[in-house]
């Protein structure tokens, strides 16, 4: 059957007609069915309880941290910013509002990334990206577990977009807001540091500091956050932890081997960041998104806690596939994406041991593989005589 001609329906129009219903129904299913149904893991329950105690002037950090249930680990600054959800007397309504805000944040983040990557939001790319994102484990479980990471993802996308468009003060405000809630994106400050842009650091420091000061003054047991909660976050837990240390502790790997592996990952991450400097002048979007992905993948691997749904922050990296000079146009990169994005369960009745190993290890293996793939491609391009996308310093300013 021949493809449609220009006088009839075009291929892009056909793709849009196919993808929009799939994308819309997937979003509706993830929000109204999966997220509203919830799961055993419920990150919002601790947030709601803590903010209610905060507003009532009761101790916030009074949980038993020895249990395996989700714990409230936000700093007083995060408690202050999340406290409006505790104002709502009805837990269900508050949780649904939280889900809707995170859903809207994820969609807004994808829209910003499309603008950053110069993709037409009226094309079939929009439903394709929306469908792909909401099909991932990262987005699905962020909503199902009712986690704040959707808002953090929006802060990340806004930070990158605003850096790219040279709205540096606003870029600092975007990442500062995220840091006031949780420190996940702090390593991304390496981007303005490399470009010697000081403006983003103002918002990145002032907003969390102001929120912390206010939250500290209003939290009756704020000191307990430093004495109890922070030491707990520095420990490596052996459940629901896909970091190298978490996986190693679970399987009884000797601590020296875990330490050596973490050091190697840090070295690989730093080397990749250094090699990526070649791209910062003539392909800024590629540099921003790829460096972001490399840094965060390295952090997920070497931190004390790495969870699969953190991989939502790697969406900008994988979107670079549409850019000239992309480092993820290889099959190992998308094998890695399968490992850290797809929600497939690898538990096996026929091979229980190996299935269980794959089920626990596939996010870790995915992060390792994407980091290794990008590093190998960078080294290959640098070593090749006619290496692809080798860049002479441009005259543009940082």
TrEMBL record:
It is a multi-pass membrane protein. InterPro entries: GT87 (IPR018584). It is found in: Cell membrane. Coiled coil: none annotated. The keyword Glycosyltransferase applies. One of its GO terms (molecular function) is glycosyltransferase activity. Its main location: membrane. Keywords: Cell membrane, Glycosyltransferase, Membrane, Transferase, Transmembrane, Transmembrane helix. Its EC number is 2.4.-.-. The chain crosses the membrane at residues 14-33, 96-114, 144-163, 170-194, 200-220, 257-279, 285-305, 360-380. Signal peptide: none annotated. Belongs to the glycosyltransferase 87 family. This is Glycosyltransferase family 87 protein.
